[in-house]
Amino acid sequence: MSSESTGRSTWKSRTGFILAAIGSAVGLGNIWRFSYLAYENGGGAFLIPYIVALLTAGIPLLILEFGIGHERIGSAPLAFRKIGRRWEWLGWWPLLFTMFGIVLYYSVVIAWCVDFMFYSFNLSWGDDPDKFFFESFLNLSSSPTEIGVIQTPILISLFIVWLVSWGIIVRGVSRGVELANRVFMPLLLLLTLVLVFWSVNLEGAMVGISAYLKPDFTKLGDPDVWISAYGQIFFTLSLGFGIMIAYASYMPYNSNMTGSAVITALANCGFSLLSGFGVFAILGFMSVTQNKPLEEVVTQSIGLAFVAYPKAISLIGNAGPLFGVLFFLSLTVAGVSSAISIVEAFVSGAEDKFGINRKKLATLLCVLGFAGSIIFTTNGGLFWLDIVDHFINNYGLVMAGLLECIVVGWFFRLDIIRKHLNKVSKMQLGVWWNWVIKLCLPLFLTVILLNQLVREFSVAYGGYSWASLIGIGWSWIGITFLVSFIFAVQPWKTDNHLAKGRGEEL
Ligand code: TRP
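That is the input. Now the predicted structure with tryptophan docked in place:
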């Protein structure tokens, strides 16, 4: 069967596929979001819910997404169409809110990293990185409705970020995405190892590391800690984005998919744990050199990379600029390899359905992506980022994951996917996996969603006005949801949807 010809682009090798999947998973979220969450939610004790979430939700769901893409042989829209005619929209929705939501602000954060890489050379932030970041660099307004003007340095780097992404995607699956990740992933690992090694040797590093690893078990009783852990696992493994489905569809028949899912998940989370050492070592160094308690040097997540790190870079002395360049370069590399994954997944969906040439699609999407990102480079940009991020992460991703489990578990024969995975993989999934997908995951995800909803309506998120929350956050979710139906009812221009899945052919 390995000679089957589906006419689909394919990865050159399994290693290439795994590296690309890791490239999508490892992103900005692994470096600062994880460290900050760990710190805030009980240090070492956070690792317990994090690992539980990885085992109970992350790995089973990643196996499911790999299984759907590989068995149905399609990007998310095609795969869901082949699961059932009425489910095609569920393939489009995550692609829409990620491509026209997450990646728009995510690429702006990468652009900040590019700017800060240059600022590192002469420590442009001076003695007050906080003021520099919020006032000079972002020139932050007082509310999301005050958009103000575009910040030119951000716009220029944003253009470069989209240009590089475009340059990778137009080259196709194996010569573009695979090749880029073959360079980016080893480079990222090297940069991270250098930074971690450097950081743990700084004075005071141990103070930070012991805060990172010292468990505060009282936090385990707090449902918020568990919710943060599950939310982080979704974001970090690119689950519910529709990306992993497309990536898996490019694998030839005989490929150990279950094993690849486990490797991808473990590598991604291992990377987070590793970079956590670096981040906490830096915090310890700052607390000791400035003679301040550790709690005072940690700010909120964005502040960690763009305020606390610059401060630390200035304190390092002569080698500070080199440290800064390496740090912001590693964030940029991690970010770009995630950003290209959604463009690729969208290109794949549109190519499957409309048969449009991928070069044209890639160009169109990158132009739209760049244009759409511009709102986040304005003076109100950070507020927009915060709101869109909150709504898409807490509702979009979780809802997409929940619906995925219900549709594949209850409206389709999940066993087709499980048997197919078992046929091609070394690691065998028992019937227990079906029940994790059909019952456990929907249950967890519903609890998370309801808890979040109750909170949403009791306090206005982030203290924003209800009008901004509805006008920006809820409408973003609502509009992408509606557009997914518009895409789904368009007639198919190819006959890809008529082909069978791999599990049914046999
Ligand atoms: N997993 C990435 C992270 O932890 C996030 C991510 C994955 C992403 N795919 C993406 C962001 C596509 C933007 C676009 O940072």
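The radius of gyration is 22 Å.
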